[in-house]
Amino acid sequence: MTDVRSEVAGAARLLAANGLLIGTAGNVSVRHDDRVFATASGVDLAQCGPDDVTETDLTGQVVSGKLKPTSELDLHLAVYRQTFAQAVVHTHAPSATAVACATNRFASMPVLHYQQMLLGGELRIAEYRTFGTPELAAAVVDALTDRQAALMAHHGSVAIGSSLGKAVDNALLVEWLAALLLRVAQVADPQPLTEEQQYAVIEQAITLNYGSPQAVQE
């Protein structure tokens, strides 16, 4: 499974290069059949390599690897057990984390830009729970219902996807949207798209097959 480990390590480095993973803060995993490959605890994610990725089963038992898996393994496993996800990205990205820390201002992340509909709409903020606990995992899974991302109060964000690439894309989108929200909030009260406008975005995306490469019709 060297290729899978390399993919996870490469995703971690990419996210670090984009400022979403800082030092050892954050984690990445992918599900491969009944196995999970996750970044190890305490690894400098900007330098993550295949040997820094640990293989476990769906109960969290280590199958291969020399390092202990991420302290948030329970969160990753809970997501795999209860959602469609094939990959999970958890970050402490600056903008998303800032929004998640401002729970007195933001009860959720509203839909200010139509691209947020790619994540399912308004993003919930899971209630604060101590990191690395089953309680946090349960809160995050609830917040991810019908969504591909969620924030974690006073902690960070989680993005999921049907592939590792899509989970990474979703994590990058969450951070861009969070930065947008913070900028808007500096100059005006954020005005979300109405429910009617959000449905129109969905209909148009379906009509245009938005977000997928398409060949020119001859």
UniProtKB/TrEMBL annotation:
Q: Which UniProt keywords apply?
A: Lyase, Metal-binding
Q: Which GO terms describe its biological process?
A: pentose catabolic process
Xref: Pfam families: Aldolase_II
Q: Where is the Class II aldolase/adducin N-terminal domain?
A: 6-182
Is-annotated flag, keyword Lyase? Answer: yes
**Looking at the keywords, is Secreted present?**
no
* Entry's Gene Ontology molecular function annotations: aldehyde-lyase activity; metal ion binding
Give GO cellular component annotations, separated by semicolons.
cytosol
Entry-linked PANTHER family: 3-OXO-TETRONATE 4-PHOSPHATE DECARBOXYLASE-RELATED, FUCULOSE PHOSPHATE ALDOLASE
Q: What is this protein called?
A: Class II aldolase/adducin family protein
